[in-house]
């Protein structure tokens, strides 16, 4: 088999041809195209521009979600009664004394409160006895 | 064209009053070599026509960005090469086949192409080129068919002259082996 050597062969042409007057027509067509709309560079739309709308929508939803509870709380008047109001009402508007009130609220607490009351009385007596200037205090009151 | 002449020519291309005339000269000087360069890559005349149009449109649109760091000639060749390769990749993607399969298909169609009058050895040479890696194909076509100097190819492809010589040498060896075996 004969070994093919590129340098030993006459130069091989690519064999590609063009239609008649191709280059003349090409120039004319191209210049016509360039003077038309093609000459205007295609407007490039950034993908971030499309995303911007989505991001803004997400941000709006987040702001609404975060601020709604705060606004709702600020505009709603609390209906919870605080203990001072309740105590004042019961003291002024009812005929119940303090012991009845305590017993009525929670019966089992009565024992604890009574024991505390007794202890408080004894403690008070001890203080009064041990106090040196008890007479002065009695006189003053 | 000397560097000074080229600078002047680019100025004329950018100046609206001289632009038309300068662009016509640019077309006159470069359309044939660029067509041959593109045709060697895409093989079919219709595809080469499309790519050549896109190349000149890109050149026209980006002339204002041309910084003169390279020669106008190599800048335009670089655009043409990129356009041709991108065109092939997109075509392969559209048809759902690989670039190699697309090239083989184009080779099969060569015989029926009215704008190809190659004989048996020319078809064999094209088939031999098709087995080369993309870079070697480019180097071989630019050196062998387009008679470009290594320095010019180096500026277009951004590869050193030494690497180009090695690429061309490997390409020739593979082609010779292919033609001998077939």
Distance between the termini of chain A: 141 Å
Structural Rg of chain A: 51 Å
Overall geometry of chain A comes to rod-shaped
Largest interface: A-B, 27 and 37 residues
The ordered H/E elements of chain B are: HHHHHHHHH
The number of distinct β-strands of chain A equals: 0
Low-confidence stretches of chain B: none
Strand content of chain A: under 5%
What is the average of the pLDDT values of chain A? Answer: 75
**CATH class assignment of the largest domain in chain B:** Mainly Alpha
Q: What is the count of DSSP helices of chain A, taking H or I runs of 4+ residues? A: 6
Outline the structure in words.
The complex is a heterodimer of chains A (141) and B (182). Chain A has six helices and no strands. Chain A has 141 residues and is mostly helical. Chain A has a domain of 38 residues. The N and C termini of chain A lie far apart (141 Å). The model of chain A has no long low-confidence stretch (mean pLDDT 75). In chain B, helix 2 packs across helix 4 and helix 4 packs across helix 8. Chain B folds into two domains: 99 residues, Rna Polymerase Sigma Factor, Chain: A, CATH 1.10.1740.10; 65 residues, Arc Repressor Mutant, subunit A (Orthogonal Bundle), CATH 1.10.10.10. In chain B, 78% of the residues lie in helices and 0% in strands. The model of chain B has no long low-confidence stretch (mean pLDDT 89). At the A-B interface, helix 1 of A face helix 2, helix 3, helix 6 and helix 9 of B.
Keywords:
heterodimer; A: 141 residues; mainly alpha; rod-shaped; B: 182 residues; Rna Polymerase Sigma Factor, Chain: A; Arc Repressor Mutant, subunit A; 2 domains; 9 helices
What is this structure's SSE topology?
The complex is a heterodimer of chains A (141) and B (182).
Chain A: H1 22-35, H2 47-75, H3 83-93, H4 98-105, H5 107-130, H6 134-140
Helix pairs in contact in A: 4-5
Chain B: H1 3-14, H2 19-42, H3 45-62, H4 72-95, H5 99-110, H6 120-130, H7 134-145, H8 150-157, H9 161-181
């Amino acid at each position: 088999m004969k070994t093919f050597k590129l340098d030993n062969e006459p130069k091989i042409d690519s064999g590609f041809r063009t239609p008649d007057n191709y280059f003349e027509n090409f120039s004319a067509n191209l210049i016509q195209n360039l003077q038309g709309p093609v000459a205007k560079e295609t407007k490039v739309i950034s993908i971030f521009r499309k995303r911007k709308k989505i991001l803004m929508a997400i941000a709006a939803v987040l702001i609404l979600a975060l601020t709604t509870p705060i606004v709702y709380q600020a505009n709603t008047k609390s209906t919870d009664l605080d203990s001072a109001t309740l105590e004042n009402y019961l003291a002024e508007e009812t005929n119940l004394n303090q012991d009845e009130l305590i017993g009525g609220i929670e019966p089992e607490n009565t024992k604890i409160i009574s024991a505390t009351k007794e202890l408080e009385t004894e403690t008070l007596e001890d203080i009064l006895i041990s106090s040196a200037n008890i007479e002065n205090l009695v006189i003053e009151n | 064209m000397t560097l000074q002449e080229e600078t002047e020519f680019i100025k004329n291309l950018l100046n609206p009053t001289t632009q038309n005339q300068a662009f016509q000269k640019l077309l006159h000087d470069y359309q044939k070599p660029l067509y041959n360069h593109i045709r060697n890559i895409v093989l079919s005349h219709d595809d080469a026509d499309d790519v050549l149009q896109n190349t000149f449109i890109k050149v026209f649109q980006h002339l204002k960005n041309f910084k003169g760091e390279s020669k106008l000639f190599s800048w335009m060749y670089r655009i043409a090469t990129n356009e041709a390769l991108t065109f092939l990749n997109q075509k392969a993607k559209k048809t759902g086949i690989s670039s190699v399969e697309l090239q083989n298909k184009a080779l099969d169609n060569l015989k029926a192409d009215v704008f190809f009058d190659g004989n048996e050895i020319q078809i064999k040479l094209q088939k031999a080129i098709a087995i080369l890696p993309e870079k070697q194909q480019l180097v071989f076509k630019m050196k062998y068919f387009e008679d470009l100097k290594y320095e010019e190819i180096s500026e277009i492809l951004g590869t050193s002259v030494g690497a180009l010589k090695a690429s061309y040498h490997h390409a020739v060896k593979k082609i010779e082996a292919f033609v001998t075996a077939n």
